[in-house]
Structure formats: structure tokens, C-alpha cells
């Protein structure tokens, strides 16, 4: 499946939009080569399941054409209910023994047959106090994975890497935040799923997908104002980085309280059952991360320093080619795409 070409296009196929990001390797690291997004028709993807293959493939193909992207090799990612991520502790063993043990371990955590999922694993650095090894196992339903692969192929592209959103976030963090920084939680608030990845000195120690996001906020706005979907989306966008527009203050506050509470419960579970200390820093991103009041509310209820993740922090770009205001405005949405674009064919992680 993996090819030899060095660079890939990061293609983040979300529930509402498709995001594209292409990087060029330079001596100092990375330089931005291409970036853009396209809106998907309503309900083309629902709960991360593709319902309208033609609409999604046509949107992807049009985006590549409009941006004149020549590279056909892409990295994509999936998330939500179709993905299971487990860290297990196992006795030290040979690589062959480990490869044979993984399916048996995985069967304990998945409701379906092992034959119905694609899976991979990675041995974590170091060893446990008991002398065991920690192994990260990732499994995804074949039907969902195959649907995303198929729709990309339909668009005339070659899906070289299939990643998971939370690990794409980790890749983005490694590119842009190389300095060790203790416990950090990356939170990407998308349209249908909120991805959470907790890192210890840059290495993932806990992940969770919350299957809710900005689409719920849109639905609440529609009910509150009797607005159509498109009008509600515009109201949602206008509620970012400032005061809520008149008429939706209540639902804005309810959404902020709901999503902040879900994130807090995840962090509390992590610190109370899996770790001995609390997360001190949270970086938020995603299309709904800028909703008025979210950053401050999350900081208040978690006692953590909260900031917006910047996927362009260590990525250069020519202001003659890319409008800095556009880059700043689209940055919150591009963390997964950035992580995917920084992948290389043959990467294990």
C-alpha cells in the first residue's frame, strides 16, 4: 500500500467540509505549498459515515482542480465510532510473538469479528514498572475505512496513508511544538466529532473521540431561531471570536457548557484513573473552537491554561502567495490536515 514518493497531500474529509493542505520540505522544516477547503452538500456525510459517494468524490476532485494540485498521493484519516484505540500492557516478547498476540488482545475490545476490522499496533517507548511493554492497538471497521478509500480513489487520487484524526493531531503537534511540555491535551472540535489526545512530552498517553461537535450547535440555532441550515451556519460563524449575535445567546452558552463539560469529564477520568497528575495545558482547534466564551469557560472549569493550537507555528509561507489574514482565519480548521500532510509513505505512526 505504501509508495516511495516523499510528500503527500493531507486531505481531511470532515462532515461538512473537505480540507486540503500540501507542504514542501525545506532545510528549516516545512513550507506551505497549497491550502484550501470546500463545503460538502448537506448530509453527504452523517456521523462520519459517507452517504453520498458521488457528492463527496466530486467535491474532492473539484478542490484539487481549483487549487491545481498535481500530487495524487494523499493521506486521509477517520474517527468516531468506527475507530477503537486501546493501550495494553504485555510481557516482553519477540516481534513474531507480539504479532500473533495482537489479534487475541484486540478481540477483547471489539464487538465484531477480527476479520471485520483493519488494525495496526505500535510498541510504546520504555517499559512499565513491572517490566512489561505498553502496546498501542488501533482498529477501524473495514466497511468505513473502505468507504473513505473508495471515495478518494473515485476522485482520481491515491490514498497512500489512512490515519486516525487523534494521531494526525499528534503529528501536527510534533511539527509545531517540538519542545517537551509535560501533559498537554489537544482538543479538535469538529462538526460531528470532538477529538481529544493527551500527550506526555509529545507522546500520546490517552485518546478519546466525543461524538458531538459543531453540528449540534447549528441544530440548536435552527430550533431557536427557525432559521434554515445555511442561515444557522452563518449565525454560528458570526458567534466566533466575540459576542453571540442577538437571539442565540442562550444556545451559545448551552453549547459552550456542554462541550466544555464533556472535555472536563474526559480529563477528570484520565487524571483520576490513569495518571497521577492533571493536564495543565489545553490546545483547542477545529471549526467550532472559536465559539464565544468557549476558551474562557474551558479554562475556568479545568484550571488549565487554554490556548488555540497553531498548525502554522513552525511552517513557513510566502505572504505573496497566501494572504496572512486567510491563513489566520482558516488555521483552527487545519490541524488534522496539517498532521496528515506531514506524514510520509511508509510511516508507522
Brief sketch in words of this structure:
This protein has 349 residues and is an alpha/beta fold.
How many strand segments? Answer: 16
Please work out how many helical segments DSSP would assign: 10
Instruction: Assign the CATH superfamily of the domain at 178-310.
Output: ATPase, nucleotide binding domain
Q: What share of the residues does DSSP label as strand, in percent? A: 25-35%
Specify Rg, calculated over alpha carbons: 20 Å
- Write down the CATH class of the domain at 178-310: Alpha Beta
Distance between the termini: 15 Å
Notes on the protein architecture:
The chain has helices at residues 53-66, 95-107, 142-154, 165-176, 214-225, 229-238, 249-274, 294-302, 324-330, 335-341, and strands at residues 9-13, 17-26, 29-39, 45-46, 49-50, 73-78, 83-90, 117-123, 133-141, 158-164, 183-189, 194-200, 203-210, 281-285, 305-308, 315-316. It is an alpha/beta fold. It has a domain at 178-310: ATPase, nucleotide binding domain (Nucleotidyltransferase, domain 5, 2-Layer Sandwich). The strands form 4 sheets. A 6-stranded mixed β-sheet has the order 10-6-1-2-3-16, with helices on both faces. Helix 7 packs parallel to helix 8 (294-302). The longest helix is centred in the C-terminal third of the chain and has 26 residues, at 249-274. It is globular and about 60 Å long. The chain starts with 8 loop residues before the first strand and ends in an 8-residue tail after the last helix.
